[in-house]
Write a structure and sequence with these properties.
Helix 6 runs parallel beside helix 10. The relative contact order is 0.06. The chain has 31 helices and 19 strands. About 50% of the residues lie in helices and about 10% in strands. The model has no long low-confidence stretch (mean pLDDT about 95). It starts with a strand and ends in a 6-residue tail after the last helix. The protein has an eight-stranded mixed sheet, with helices on both faces. Bound molecules: 3-hydroxybutanoyl-coenzyme A and 1,4-dihydronicotinamide adenine dinucleotide (NAI). The site of 3-hydroxybutanoyl-coenzyme A (3HC) has 24 residues, from helix 2, strand 5 and helix 4.
Length: about 700
């Protein structure tokens, strides 16, 4: 045929193998070739049935997302997967889709255009389009309800969850589980069904007739409360069409809804993030190989907040961990926290009790260095104190094998300073996990000046094994995330000083889509910790830079946030924020002393001040090389700081509103609030003037 699909004959069964590495994405060209191959085999008199399968590690991971991005940008003709899939369904010889790996989105839609589906037990099936701000666009919203029923189909499309083969079989999506090798099983199955009458998915409407409209209505009510809901609502509309309209008209309706979603900013943002997450794993110019430093067994030093989270993350991934503390008491506390993490995972149905016990059994708590000579990586998570960390590194250097990687989880110290004196700067690296480390998916990987590139590559690969998005960050204060988050938090504090209430500031940012408002973040990390960070960073600020008097006042009053029950807000046992009754007076007092007149501040100004300061700092981070690409900053903020994924991250968001607009806002704030805080980053100014973008 051609290079995208291969055709072979196995006696009376024709076999079509899709060969579009790495994941057999269903581009228009693949779909066309697939349909042509099926039709060619169907016309062969010696063939009684046809098997379609994917080469390599998967069936079809979905429509080709690169092509979707081109279509969305008007650089490629509209998607047409519907007609090739319809031709497959029209084959006069039965088509058996043989599934391994992923049959997601367009992959599942292709599978449903066959007459039968067999899947290996480990196969994953689902409709993840919603995660890309889309709905299925290759007949999926019309065929899926016919196989699993409209309510189940709607749930699959609005949640984007994938399922294993057995669950898919129980729902009617898969006909048989292929035990043993897939192709021989599929061939046997294809011979068994060869003489049965063809049953097209689009003709099977029994399940459409028995739908409970109240359940669909309940799903509609649910999505209305989940922003951004465009794709979810569109998915429900398309599924409704499957009940009300004939198949072909339903498909037309689906196409209209799909195209509208594809043009939306949310979809462009989500597709940007999909590629950003994968681009982050690639280090420009790094010839390093993760193979030289294979990480099989690890150790963690310190069983506090971070050490326990990091240990849980390793154990969750089945990596054996030695966990070292200074005392049995601290170790006992740490292990209790780790067990609680696993209990929560069992409670949420993510792990079986047995699996949780096995994972915990893979952790070896200890107060000495026994066994450290066998580990491939040590992560230290002791106090944030340079001298303490240097001592730990020196002790480790004497204990571990020469090729063992030493990582520090420091959030603010210089990785080179921590490595100095250990004699192993080439094997030392920063691995900045985020709290809670077993949940948060961001990992900043911070090579020092002398870190061996193979060590960096090994840590990036390990990040992926832990299910994290690993991003390389330069060894500069605050790395990427904390550095650009600082001005965001700072503006949040200033806004209260100038007249906004804490609630107004937090609500404006939450409405913008942030997971939490800036002052709620301050209260969570602790006013004492925030102040300490400000002091550390502030050392390099010019003397004229404004400081937050209210942060200082809260600190002096011992109002450290959630942990003391009072900070920017008050907190009861339920941890829900309530207005701090003393704050308004503090703010008035502070304004009187500073001679500022408090004023009403609009939600738009609140958002602009916080978000533009973040973007401006992001531009500096980019121009000085602390991040390799703008999209790395997006990955950091979406996965580490609660920036709304549907806006694509701060740098992509800046591109969507226009860098000239961002620059104008920054210059406006510079005029009002002074140049030390609001000087536009040269890169922002240059791109805005030349009509460029961060992501371009
Ligand atoms: N289109 C284009 N490229 C894809 C792709 C797709 N659907 N899925 C994965 N890739 C690429 C990745 O960009 C990556 O490329 P790179 O090596 O150049 O960076 C490579 O394949 C490997 O991907 P991963 O690193 O993600 O590999 P994993 O093994 O970790 O995961 C996977 C495999 C679970 C299949 C994961 O890639 C995935 O979730 N893919 C996307 C699935 C999806 O969203 N499908 C729906 C697409 S939209 C659609 O189908 C619309 C339709 O209804 C019309
Ligand atoms: P923590 O105070 O909760 O825990 C530190 C633990 O280290 C304590 O249990 C202590 O007993 C132990 N320890 C101290 N010296 C030790 C030694 N020589 N050997 C073994 N154990 C020792 O601190 P936390 O919050 O876990 O922070 C740890 C590190 O992680 C710090 O560098 C911090 O900056 C960083 N970090 C913290 C984040 C957070 O949100 N808490 C986020 C990201 C990084």
């Amino acid at each position: 045929m051609n290079e995208l699909v291969r055709v072979s004959l196995q006696d009376d069964v024709g076999v079509v193998t899709i060969d579009n590495p790495p994941v057999n994405a269903l581009s228009s060209a693949v779909a066309k070739s697939l349909a042509a191959a099926v039709l060619e085999l169907a016309g062969n008199d010696s063939i009684r049935s046809i098997v379609v399968l994917g080469s390599g590690s998967t069936f079809i991971a979905g429509a080709d997302i690169r092509e979707l991005a081109q279509i969305g940008a008007g650089e490629a003709p509209p998607l047409d997967l519907l007609s090739p899939l319809k031709s497959i369904e029209d084959s006069p010889k039965p088509v058996v889709m043989a599934i391994h790996g992923a049959a997601l989105g367009g992959g599942l839609e292709a599978a449903m255009s066959g007459h039968y589906r067999v899947a290996v037990p480990g196969a994953q099936l689902g409709m993840p389009e919603v995660k890309l701000g889309l709905i299925p666009g290759a007949g999926g919203t019309q065929r899926l309800p016919r196989l699993v029923g409209p309510v189940q189909a709607a749930e699959m499309c609005i949640e984007g969850r994938s399922m294993g083969a057995r669950e898919a079989r129980d729902l009617g999506l898969v006909d048989e589980i292929a035990e043993g090798e897939l192709l021989p099983y599929a061939l046997r199955f294809a011979r068994q069904i060869a003489s049965r009458p063809i049953r097209k998915t689009r003709d099977r409407d029994e399940k459409l007739r028995s739908v409970d409209p109240a359940k669909l209505q309940a799903l509609r009510a649910r999505v209305a409360t989940e922003p951004p809901s465009r794709a979810r609502v569109a998915a429900l509309d398309a599924i409704q069409a499957s009940i009300e309209l004939p198949f072909d008209t339903g498909c037309q309706r689906e196409a209209e809804l799909f195209n509208a979603c594809l043009q939306s900013v949310e979809s462009r943002a989500a597709i940007h993030l999909f590629f950003a997450e994968r681009a982050a794993a690639k280090i420009p110019g790094l010839a390093g190989s993760p193979k030289r430093f294979e990480i099989r067994k690890v150790a963690v030093v310190g069983a506090g907040t971070m050490g326990t989270g990091i240990t849980t993350a390793f154990a969750q991934s089945g990596i054996p961990v030695l966990l070292k503390e200074v005392s049995e008491e601290a170790l006992g506390r740490g292990m209790a926290n780790i067990r609680a993490n696993f209990d929560r995972a069992v409670g949420k149905g993510r792990l079986t009790q047995q699996a949780a016990e096995d994972r915990v059994a893979g952790i070896h708590p200890q107060i000495d260095f026994t066994g450290f000579e066998q580990v491939d990586l040590v992560v230290e998570a002791v106090f944030e104190d340079l001298a303490v960390k240097q001592t730990v590194m020196a002790d480790l250097s004497k204990t571990v094998r020469p090729e063992c990687i030493l990582a520090t989880n420091t959030s603010s110290l210089d990785v080179d300073a921590i490595a100095s004196g250990s004699g192993r700067a080439d094997k030392t690296i920063g691995l900045h996990f985020f709290s809670p480390a077993n949940v948060m998916r961001l990992l900043e990987v911070v090579p020092g000046a002398q870190t061996d590139p193979d060590v960096t590559a090994a840590c990036m690969a390990m990040g992926k094994r832990l299910g994290k998005f690993a991003v390389v960050a330069g060894n500069r204060p605050g790395f990427i995330g904390n550095r650009a988050f600082r001005p965001y938090l700072r503006e949040g504090r200033f806004l209260v000083e100038e007249g906004a209430s804490v609630e107004e500031v937090n609500e404006a940012l939450v409405r913008f889509g942030m997971g939490m408002g800036p002052l709620a973040v301050d209260d969570l990390i602790g006013i004492d910790v925030s102040r300490h960070i400000e002091e550390q960073f502030g050392r390099s600020d010019p003397a004229s830079v404004r400081r937050s008097a209210l942060l200082e006042a809260l600190y002096r009053a011992g109002s450290f946030g959630q942990k003391t029950g009072r900070g920017w807000s008050d907190y009861g046992a339920d941890r829900k924020p309530r207005p701090n009754p003393e704050l308004a007076a503090l703010a008035e007092d502070d304004a009187a002393k500073a001679g500022t007149k408090r004023r009403h501040i609009s939600p738009d100004e609140i958002v602009d001040r916080c978000i533009c300061s973040l973007i401006n700092e992001g531009a500096r981070i980019l121009e000085e090389g602390t991040a390799y690409r703008a999209s790395d900053i997006d990955v950091v903020f979406v996965h580490g700081y609660g920036f709304p994924a549907w806006r694509g991250g701060p740098m992509f968001y800046a591109d969507t509103i226009g860098l000239d607009t961002v620059l104008a806002k920054v210059q406006g704030f510079q005029e009002r609030f002074g140049s030390d805080l609001w000087a536009p980053a040269p890169l922002l100014a240059e791109l805005a003037r030349s009509g460029g973008t961060f992501s371009g």
